[in-house]
Automatic annotation (TrEMBL), chains A, B:
PANTHER family: HTH-TYPE TRANSCRIPTIONAL REGULATOR (PTHR46797), HTH-TYPE TRANSCRIPTIONAL REGULATOR SUTR (PTHR46797:SF23). The lineage of its organism: Bacteria, Pseudomonadati, Pseudomonadota, Alphaproteobacteria, Rhodobacterales. This is Anaerobic benzoate catabolism transcriptional regulator. The keyword DNA-binding applies. GO terms for cellular component: cytosol. One of its GO terms (molecular function) is DNA binding. Residues 26-80 form the HTH cro/C1-type domain. It comes from Roseovarius halotolerans. PROSITE patterns: HTH_CROC1 (PS50943).
Length: 85, 85
DNA sequence: CTGTGACTTTCAGTCCGTC
DNA sequence: CGACGGACTGAAAGTCACA
């Protein structure tokens, strides 16, 4: 039923499967670590609203940002790109 | 003959382990696929010099760029972040 | 075929908020 | 606590000429 989400709301999901996979894994792994977005942001030196955007799949982070997040969560970077999991 | 590299070449390696891991894996996987930087660039719609910069570890690509490269090489994205190989 | 410096445009990433 | 908006700055995207 995936209704064709055509409404042009300001910020939209990025049209990249990998970005969406990353988003889901980030949310899952952050919760697993029992951290709020704010706490995680503090740990990796990124902005609270940026972490939020990453989890919602509307941000396209660089490798350096992925690395910061991975270190803060003590998880190997490649885990954020696992699909089946 | 590695002449005494004292000249301050403005472009330097990015100070990120993950960027360097990505760089090495990209070069290795591209060669494994028997492609030139130019051919790979064409396949993923990126510039030849951009691929070059990625392999040399002086570019910090975003997830979307990683995805384009991974698809062009027919390799899961996570492979680019494997360490031990 | 690839490395490199220089360059402009686009967007990653920050900081202020409100709901 | 998290989704989301607007405005901003610096860094990534993307290109080129030449070694």
């Amino acid at each position: 039923m995936v209704h064709t989400l055509s409404t042009r709301t300001s910020m939209e999901l990025l049209d990249s499967a990998l970005v969406q996979i990353f988003a889901g894994n980030l949310k899952r792994l952050r919760k697993k670590a029992r951290l709020s977005q704010e706490e995680l942001a503090l740990r990796c030196g990124l902005d609270r609203t940026y972490i939020s955007g990453c989890e919602r799949g509307i941000r396209n982070p660089s490798i350096v940002s992925v690395e910061k997040i991975a270190e803060a969560l003590n998880v190997p970077a490649k885990e954020f790109f696992e699909n089946g999991r």
